[in-house]
Design goal:
The protein is α/β, with parallel strands linked by helices. The protein is 43% helix and 10% strand.
Length: 457
């Protein structure tokens, strides 16, 4: 299945994460980057905007409406279209005419502010309905399709409207688990108006790889090419990480099978430059895709943002830092090499350590110092986005540098090692790590106790 010429291919960014929303200045900067990189669509639908879900029935107040109008004007001047979405699924009554009227009113208001694409989001909700909805529609897919079709009809009565729809099961794993009910996606595909595009994240919520075969299967269920909501660079599910690696795991064969590709990236706006730079390069590229070359090109373009008060960040150091915060499924090449070298050294008794231990200690010290250099950045928004993650990485690198140095010194080798800066109950402490230490995840994704249960006296 191929996208219809009547439905232009969408490319761009979704502000659709859980967490603090981006500022106006960040959104304008995003629009500038999108215009320069040839991306055409910005979808505004952050989960923690109170009007996105909790207060979806309430029109935007004057101040927020003025902000959206201004943003749409700025986007239009840069050749970028604004898509506006909200998620009514937590408390909607699909059979209630008042809820239909509220949804239409929200989109009519958005249209008056310059929005050109309208988005209904039924993701991350319980797959249940009120009794009257069950009685009328029978299944969640029928209820949601009827609701979306009615909204589209109401909007199209005045001017053509493009609508996007996020289903309740929006990835392969959810479909396999019959989230939304058996046959949800097939029923949705049959009932939903053909003009409505449907979001899909791939085999998983965060998909390391998406194949043409997978997309073809999804398109057969939906009776239309899906629109990719790509969570490859998202980090709202793990506040200790972010992802600045390249666009990866998506072969060129996907593009003609999709209605578009929109990235839902890191919550912290300054961290998204490399990933979006790489996505735009993937969309423009032809032939073989060299993701590592794309990453290195993005890092070079990002490097001017890392000007320090005392000295610039060396490109090699930024590559290594980025490699430590690469992609959900893997670290970058330099980080993997450093970790493997360190693991090999630590697997040997210290009295057998040779030049390789000295070398890996020097590389760890350079990583530690690169993390410390983040505090020196002139761009304080960049510093704020990096600081917690870089500090944690710095502490781990520093501990390893000290441990290696202790055991490389014949005077202290073999004696108990303790750091003055990493103390029990403070370093690696807190409720979250203590809970994480109770269950171990196996390579196949299954879980089991980390240690045998201790019988209660």
């Amino acid at each position: 299945m191929h996208a219809s010429p009547a439905a232009p291919f969408l490319s761009g960014v979704i502000e659709g994460f859980y967490g603090p929303t981006w500022s106006r200045a960040e959104r304008i900067e995003l629009l500038d980057l999108m215009s320069a990189w040839g991306l055409n669509t910005y979808l505004q639908g952050p989960k923690d905007d109170i009007h996105h879900r909790a207060a979806w029935r309430i029109p935007y107040p004057h101040e927020e409406a003025s902000e959206l109008r201004s943003l749409a004007r700025e986007a239009g001047a840069r050749g970028v279209q604004i898509a506006h979405g909200f998620g009514p699924g937590l408390d909607i009554r699909y059979s209630d005419p008042a809820d239909l009227d509220a949804a239409v009113a929200r989109f009519v208001q958005a249209r008056s502010m310059g929005v050109s694409i309208f988005v209904l989001l039924f993701d991350d909700i319980p797959d249940q309905m009120h009794a009257e909805d069950v009685a009328r529609w029978g299944t969640l897919a029928r209820a949601q399709a009827a609701f979306a079709n009615a909204v589209l009809d109401a909007l199209s009565g005045h001017a053509p409207a493009r609508m996007l729809f996020c289903p309740t099961p929006y990835c392969g794993r959810m479909a396999m688990r019959a989230h939304g009910g058996p046959g949800y996606l097939q029923q949705l595909g049959a009932d939903l108006a053909p003009a409505i595009d449907v979001f899909w994240t791939g085999p998983e919520i965060v998909s390391h790889e998406i194949t043409p075969r997978h997309i073809d299967e999804v398109a057969s269920w939906l009776r239309r090419p899906p629109l990719l909501w790509d969570n490859l660079h998202a980090n709202d599910y793990d506040g200790r990480r972010f992802h600045c690696g390249p666009y990866s795991g998506r072969p060129h064969g996907l593009r003609p099978r999709l209605r578009g590709v929109l990235s839902n990236p890191n919550t912290e706006f300054p961290l998204n430059f490399p990933g979006l730079h790489s996505l735009s390069a993937w969309l423009r590229s032809a032939g073989d895709w060299d993701e590592r070359a794309s990453y290195l090109e993005a890092i070079r373009a990002w490097l001017p943002r890392f000007e320090g008060w005392k000295q610039p960040m060396p490109e090699e150091d930024l590559v290594l830092l980025g490699d430590c915060f690469y992609l959900p499924g893997t670290e970058g090449a330099m980080a993997v090499q450093l970790r493997d070298q360190l693991r090999d050294v630590l697997a040997m008794p210290p009295d057998r350590w040779g030049p390789e231990a000295t070398m890996v200690r020097a590389r760890l010290a350079r990583l530690r110092d690169a993390c410390a250099r983040i505090a020196d950045l002139r761009d304080r928004r960049m510093f704020a986005a990096w600081s917690r993650r870089a500090w944690e990485l710095r502490e781990e690198a520093d501990l390893l540098v000290k441990f290696l140095g202790w055991n490389l010194d014949p005077a202290t080798r073999g004696q108990p090692f303790q750091s003055d800066f990493h103390q029990p109950l403070t370093y690696r402490g807190g409720m979250v790590p203590s809970l994480q230490n109770l269950l171990a995840m196996q390579p196949d994704g299954t879980f089991g106790p980390c240690t045998p249960a201790v019988p209660t006296p």
